[in-house]
Design the sequence.
């Protein structure tokens, strides 16, 4: 059997085994993507990661394949994490082991250079995994308080009487609760994913890419605070119905679009302030 057929057979066997071991993990993961609006972007992560890997096909073809037995250790460690998650009923562990198992298979079948080349697509897969509840709550609740505080300050600045109790804004004619869904974490996660992609496709420098992705955090926070304040103003002017139903959902989409445009503006500013240096000219050949 030729070397290429052996690699194809080994890769197919690994894919079948991987699918069998993780079938229940993927089923629950897709369920969460479908029903949890905070992670609905998860459906896009795998296709994007596959595209990013496909984009590297020429670089992979130029790399010498040197399978490494260290990959088996990575796979074994990841499967232990999977078992720990199953027996401990910890979904995050079972899901995070997916990335480790894939990385271990790449290392075992193709070697370290392949793994380095595919490091970004593999790391990108982490965005499809919902955060553990304990971490999610540590992020969401402070965002709720921050949004409610910003809403209170904005309402007071336009002379609308308001009383804040934690994450609840009490107006003269209604009461608004900045719930977990309104904390802004949903738009933060989605905007961060978009920021990573925008940085990747617009600038080759790792530092600038990181800066662009990081800029999505304050942008998302400011945009959500503006949404809460706008909802409070609308509720005061037009009644409680302005803070519910269609208007509430529409404002969420509108604010996200504005946040995305603001992120693009920030990206332009960053690239303008940190222009890429032109490549150095090649030294002239010296005549002998």
Sequence:
């Amino acid at each position: 059997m030729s070397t290429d057929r052996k690699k194809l057979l080994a890769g197919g066997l690994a894919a079948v085994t991987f699918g069998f071991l993780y079938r229940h993990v993927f089923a629950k993961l897709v369920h969460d993507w479908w029903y949890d609006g905070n992670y609905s972007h998860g459906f896009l992560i795998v296709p994007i990661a596959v595209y990013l890997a496909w984009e590297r096909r020429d670089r992979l073809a130029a790399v010498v394949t040197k399978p490494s037995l260290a990959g088996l250790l990575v796979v074994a460690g990841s499967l232990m994490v999977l078992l720990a998650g199953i027996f401990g009923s910890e979904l995050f562990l079972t899901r995070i082991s997916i990335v480790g198992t894939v990385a271990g298979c790449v290392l075992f079948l193709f070697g370290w250079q392949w793994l380095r080349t595919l490091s970004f697509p593999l790391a990108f897969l982490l965005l499809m995994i919902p955060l553990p509840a304990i971490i999610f709550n540590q992020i969401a609740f402070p965002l709720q308080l921050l949004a409610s505080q910003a809403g209170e300050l904005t309402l007071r600045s336009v002379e609308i009487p308001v009383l804040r109790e934690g994450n609840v804004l009490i107006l003269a004619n209604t009461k608004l609760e900045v719930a977990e869904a309104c904390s802004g974490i949903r738009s933060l996660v989605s905007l961060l994913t978009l920021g990573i992609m925008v940085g990747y496709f617009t600038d080759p420098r790792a530092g600038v890419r990181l800066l662009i992705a990081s800029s999505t955090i304050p942008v998302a926070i400011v945009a959500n605070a503006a949404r809460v304040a706008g909802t409070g103003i609308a509720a005061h002017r037009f009644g409680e119905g302005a803070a519910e139903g269609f208007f509430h959902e529409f404002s969420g989409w509108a604010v996200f679009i504005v946040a995305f445009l603001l992120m693009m503006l920030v990206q332009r500013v960053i690239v303008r302030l940190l222009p890429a240096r032109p490549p150095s000219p090649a030294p002239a050949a010296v005549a002998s």
